[in-house]
Design brief:
21% strand, 5-stranded mixed β-sheet, alpha+beta, 24 strands, 8-stranded mixed β-sheet
């Protein structure tokens, strides 16, 4: 770093000197610039020459002046310094250097391209040990990994790497199986549930997980601390610990859905002491296979937890390097042979190399549109809402994007969308697609609210809808916010329409409850009072249903009813495309579009593509 300071002082002395052009100077002049002795000047010149930043030719004999030429540009030196800092594990310092020296877009692009070569699998090995690191780029920071606050896909994924739940979804996606609790039982009424915890499970701070921790976690979730959620709707009558490893949950009414609710990532068990720390959201402490050791604006680091009760992960370390540039700049697919990025997940942009994805699936969730019906105005008209739904035709909306990445939605859940479309086809039902003139011309522009995501796809869709409505004489004003600002209830309440993306997981019933109850989601806040009251009554009926298949049928009926009420419009599901090198084993994409790090390992001697 000191050498760079010497170089930049030369830049100040010579100004914008053309690279390679030599100017005459003396040791005394350089001593004044660097505030040192002529002897030290010679040492600095030798170091700068060895770095390749200058060409120095000393004068021979009395009266002959020396010549000096700058052979590196200021941007080259800054870039090199940023690269050196990054290679030493100080990505944040590298990015800070670019900012301090006023790096332009071109230099940041050069730095981002160089970074791509640092991604992928890195192995440090000797005779006794091998350390495997997976390094991936991501486009935004994640300062809050508290499971109770989590709403976005990648945060859910990270929570699943760092935390555990009492029970979990089985591999078939339907059943609930033991996890932190090795056994549970309920009384015949479905009101009293008892969970028996495993002994010897350790949190990342090496404290043992006890029933008191589980009780603390659930009391925290069911409090008003996080606003209204699916957990505040739990008919909780009370809880008590039974010894160090038993937890009894008492409910005011039958609630057969409880094990499935406890399997959701939001119910991840926290240690009582650590969860009260101010730093917990940024550096959470769980009992999962990885612990978060670093979480800043430029890097998130996960390290394998050796004492994980279900068996240590094969990966030793996962690094997510936060590069906002990757929200718009595709990652290359030309080097999928283990030399660069061996795993490109759906939330990295990637170029069209023609290489087919290794895993392709439809997202669990969908993009949807809601209508504010809590105040007088044109949106009270069902006919006008239907017109807006036709205006937001997902096939036309995504025609300018890659249509291979989208599939029209009839539900929050792709499987249910297929069922609905099959029913429409079987019954000969055909949806109206012609737009025609609007039944109402609002007196003022309607506010359409959305938020920033990868590639600004929601914003571009919102502006497309604005232009389509404007052509018919209906004015929309598009407002785009950062996600943390978007989810504020007052921001949702002020909007006339909201374009959002619903995140779901393997359990459609629990996902649906979260989407309906959570104040940070949109649907319930935009419903009229009569519809909201009817929704609540129907949700209570579904929660009390003991038979899983019947419970799913009831929730599907509720969702269909909301659609028929034009309370919301389902637009499209995203297709998630994942690419990975054949040397990776254990690649299983979870509902959030990521491969679970716990299952990943490297096949070191596999043949390449």
């Amino acid at each position: 770093m000191r050498l760079a300071e010497h170089f930049f002082k030369l830049r100040q002395l010579f100004g914008d000197l053309e690279a390679g052009r030599a100017l005459e100077t003396t040791l005394d002049q350089l001593a004044d610039v660097w505030h040192c002795t002529p002897r030290n000047v010679k040492w600095i010149l030798r170091r700068l020459s060895m770095a390749g930043w200058i060409a120095w030719s000393p004068g021979r004999g009395r009266g002959n002046r020396s010549t000096l030429a700058l052979t590196a540009s200021g941007s080259d030196v800054v870039l090199l310094l940023a690269q050196e800092a990054t290679d030493k594990g100080r990505l944040q310092d590298g990015i800070r250097l670019l900012g301090e020296h006023g790096a332009g877009e071109d230099m940041r692009e050069r730095f981002a391209r160089w970074l791509e070569g640092r991604f992928g699998y890195h192995i440090d090995a000797d005779e006794n040990r091998q350390t495997d690191t997976l390094r991936l780029p991501f486009y935004r920071a994640m300062p809050n990994l508290d499971p109770a606050w989590t709403l976005r896909r990648t945060e859910w994924h990270m929570v699943r790497q760092a935390f555990d739940t009492l029970v979990r979804r089985g591999d078939d996606g339907q059943t609930v199986v033991p996890h932190l609790a090795y056994y549970w039982e309920s009384d015949s009424t479905g009101r009293i549930w008892t969970f028996y915890l495993r002994k010897g499970v350790l949190f990342h701070d090496k404290t043992e997980l006890r029933a008191e921790d589980a009780r603390y976690t659930l009391e925290r979730l069911t409090s008003a601390e996080f606003g209204r959620t699916e957990w505040t709707e739990l008919p909780l009558a009370g809880m008590r610990t039974i010894g160090p490893y038993g937890l009894e949950i008492r409910l005011r009414r039958p609630y057969w859905l409880l094990p499935q609710l406890l399997a959701s990532p939001r119910a991840s068990i926290l240690p009582r002491s650590a969860a009260r720390s101010r730093e917990f959201a940024r550096l959470p402490v769980g009992s999962g296979p990885f612990r978060v050791t670093e979480n800043g604006d430029s890097q998130i680091v996960l390290e394998a937890f050796p004492a994980y009760f279900a068996g240590r992960a094969q990966l030793d370390r996962v690094e997510l390097w936060i590069l906002p540039e990757t929200s718009h700049r595709p990652s290359a697919l030309t080097e999928l042979d283990g030399e660069t990025i061996p795993y490109i997940h759906p939330f990295q942009l990637h170029g069209g190399s023609g290489h087919p994805p290794d895993i392709e699936r439809v997202e669990a969730g969908c993009t949807y549109l809601t209508f504010q019906r809590n105040r007088p105005g044109p949106l009270e008209s069902g006919e006008f809402r239907n017109w807006l739904i036709r205006a937001a035709d997902p096939n036309l909306m995504n025609a300018e994007l890659d249509p291979r990445k989208h599939r029209p939605a009839r539900s929050f859940f792709p499987e249910w969308s297929l069922m609905e479309m099959e029913t429409e086809l079987r019954n000969g039902m055909k949806r109206r697609t012609e737009l025609g003139p609007p039944p109402i011309f609002p007196e003022r522009p309607l506010r359409l609210l959305t938020y920033r995501i990868l590639n600004d796809s929601l914003e571009r869709n919102a502006r497309w809808l604005r232009d389509r409505c404007a052509a018919a004489g209906v004015k929309l004003e598009v407002e785009v916010r950062d996600y943390e600002d978007f989810i504020r209830p007052e921001a949702i309440d002020e909007a006339d329409l909201v374009l959002a993306n619903a995140v779901a997981d393997e359990n459609p019933v629990v996902s649906f409850l979260r989407l309906m109850y959570d104040d940070r989601h949109v649907v319930r806040r935009h419903l009229s009072s009569p519809v909201r009251e009817r929704l609540h009554a129907r949700l209570l009926e579904a929660e009390a249903e003991p038979e899983p298949g019947e419970r799913i049928r009831l929730v599907r009926e509720i969702e269909r009813w909301l659609s028929d009420e034009t309370a919301l419009a389902f637009l499209y599901h995203l297709k998630q495309m994942t690419y990975f090198d054949e040397r990776l084993i254990g690649v299983q994409v979870n509902p959030y579009g990521w491969a679970d790090f716990y299952r990943l390992a490297l096949r070191p001697f596999a043949s390449r593509r």
